[in-house]
Design a protein that fits this description.
The complex is a heterodimer of chains A (235) and B (305). Chain A has 235 residues and is of the alpha/beta class. Helices cover 27% and strands 25% of the residues of chain A. The longest helix of chain A is centred in the middle third of the chain and has 18 residues, at 85-102. In chain B, strand 15 and strand 16 form a beta hairpin. The chains are: A alpha/beta (235), B alpha+beta (305). The interface between A and B is large, with 51 and 56 residues.
Chain lengths: 235, 305
């Protein structure tokens, strides 16, 4: 089974579930975390179980996970008493970080301690990681003053997305190479980079570990990546 | 220049500040009470530079060689909570905090400790796997929404505790017969249960290569709250076997922590268990009881960077 973890209101996630129906895909939302059946035994990942679309699913049947939220937020839990929502959201996020990290299957992206989507990096951290990897960067200037206005977002001239082994957009071969390099440095399988004009060429200006799944090709690339090495290659 | 970031009333921050001034180290305390007057300019590209100014002081970020970060949740500062979430001061406080967090992640200075390195403490079962990978034993642990599974776990181990899965501080409590009806509530949220390990608690502070161990003798399930249940706690300095000290040192290093508080328990059979690693330990509680020079050691780490 391919699991798509998202909020209940994520229409893209529902489109992915539909597209992956022949491979047994199902949506897991925060409401599923309030159902009996989840089980995580430390050091014994094979004994685990999840609740996906209301059904209890043994970990051994999960072949891949696509995550579309960085954390569970209080506003995703209308079924929880209002006074408890912040605490329950923190507990659910902490649980999912451990649970997903223990899965032996492929994940897009594998969680880190700080985020379900991979590195919980601020823009400055993406820029530093890119600069260290030899990628041209557009410097970020952050000025914090009482009543100061936020600086305008840089104008993105080109975007490049990596999903698994495939690259989308970009145009210039160097953008594809930089996108692969930064994804590798960050340890993620999916990533969208935005490039802005800077000096005599393009330079990295933004990074997003949750790409826009705005084409069938991207959805297919994610499925191909998740099912690589999986015995379950339906249909 | 060494920068301390937090509140001057915070025990650990005050102790490290005092140790640094005693050795005439160049130190500056960025007091979070000064948020209203503070400005931050941060430039990040192929280099990291900028400036931090507050109350007439100005620091070049590139001149800072070491940082001891113990920031308090800005949203809970009285001046911000009184101003309210719609006020310019609230937004400024959060923006300044976010900017500082960004800077301490990317600065080449020594940071005790970087937020990203501290994050594993936000998911106890996630951190537990890192502890296991570093060669330390852990109690058997189950996180579940299934009341029957929790009951079976309890019956198997005989005695079980429950505690928060996240970094939200909770009192560790023993599961008793009075909790059995409430177990049905775990269907709402995954809850962490852990095999109860009898024995003696130890707090091990790792500061760079130095290890300070303290034995804690208490009759409470959670010695930090012994007073509330009428229990007693005694803390005394001790020495660990070199092999165990080495494992604590390696664990802190593998988690990317220059300063850590490792919670251990030695069972009556002599087996050592690790419960968690605190990445921002409130060490003064132990230092005052044992006389160990932990603040001086942290000061030395910062001054030598």
């Amino acid at each position: 089974m391919l699991v798509i973890l998202s909020s209940a209101h994520d229409s893209t996630a529902r489109s992915v579930v539909e597209a992956w129906a022949p491979w047994g895909a199902a949506l897991c939302t925060p409401a599923d975390l309030s159902m009996s059946g989840w089980r995580y035994s430390a050091g014994k990942p094979d004994e685990g179980a999840a609740v996906v679309a209301g059904q209890i699913v043994p970990v051994s049947t999960i072949t891949g996970v696509l995550t579309r939220l960085p954390a569970i937020h209080a506003d995703m839990l209308p079924h929880i008493h209002a006074a408890d929502r912040d605490y329950v959201a923190s507990e659910m996020t902490a649980f999912l970080i451990a649970f997903l990290s223990s899965l032996p299957c492929r994940l897009l992206n594998r969680p880190t301690a700080g985020s379900l989507l991979g590195p919980a990096w601020r823009p400055e951290q993406w820029i530093r990681a890119a600069a260290k990897a030899g990628i041209p960067v557009r410097p970020i200037h952050r000025s914090v003053r009482l009543s100061a206005l936020s600086p305008p977002e840089p104008e993105i001239a080109a975007e490049s997305t990596v999903i698994g082994d495939r690259i989308f957009g970009g145009g210039e071969p160097s953008l594809a190479a930089w996108t692969h390099a930064l994804a590798q440095a960050a340890g993620v399988g999916m990533l969208t980079l935005g490039f802005a004009l800077y000096g005599s060429g393009l330079a990295l200006a933004s990074a997003n570990p949750m790409p826009d799944f705005n084409s069938h090709e991207k959805i297919d690339a994610a499925r191909e990546f998740l099912l690589t090495d999986s015995k379950d290659q339906r249909p | 220049m060494i920068l301390l970031w937090g509140l001057p009333g915070d025990g650990p921050l005050r102790a490290v500040y005092s140790a640094l001034t005693s050795r005439n180290a160049p130190v500056c305390l960025f007091d979070q009470h000064s948020i209203a007057s503070a400005t931050l300019d941060l430039n990040v590209g192929t280099t990291v530079h900028g400036s931090l100014q507050w109350d007439g002081k100005a620091l070049a970020l590139e001149a800072i060689t070491a940082i001891y970060a113990r920031p308090y949740d800005v949203r809970r500062l009285p001046m911000l909570s009184e101003a309210g979430p719609l006020s310019p001061l609230w937004h400024h406080g959060l923006a300044l905090d976010d900017g500082m967090q960004a800077w301490v992640e990317v600065t080449p200075a020594l940071v005790v400790n970087r937020p990203s390195m501290m994050a594993s403490n936000g998911s106890k079962p996630y951190q537990a796997e890192l502890i296991r990978a570093a060669g330390l034993d852990l109690p058997d642990t189950l996180v579940t929404t299934d009341a029957k599974a929790a009951m079976a776990f309890h019956e198997y181990h005989g005695s079980v505790i429950y505690k928060s899965t996240s970094g939200v501080r909770s009192i560790v409590s023993r599961l008793g017969p009075e909790h059995k009806e409430r177990l049905m509530d775990i269907g709402n949220c995954p809850t962490q249960f852990q095999q109860y390990i009898p024995g003696v608690d130890y707090r091990v502070h790792v500061v760079g290569d130095r290890v300070f161990a303290a034995q804690i003798v208490s009759d409470a399930d959670d010695y930090r709250y012994a007073g509330r249940s009428g229990g007693r706690t005694e803390i005394r300095a001790c020495t660990l076997e070199p092999e165990l000290s080495g494992r604590c040192r390696r664990l802190a290093a593998e988690l990317g922590l220059f300063f850590a508080g490792v919670d251990l328990r030695r069972s009556p059979e002599g087996r050592w268990y690790c419960f968690e690693v605190n990445p921002s330990p409130g060490f003064t509680f132990y230092q005052e009881a044992t006389g160990q020079k932990i603040a001086e050691s942290v000061a030395s780490l910062l001054a030598d960077a």
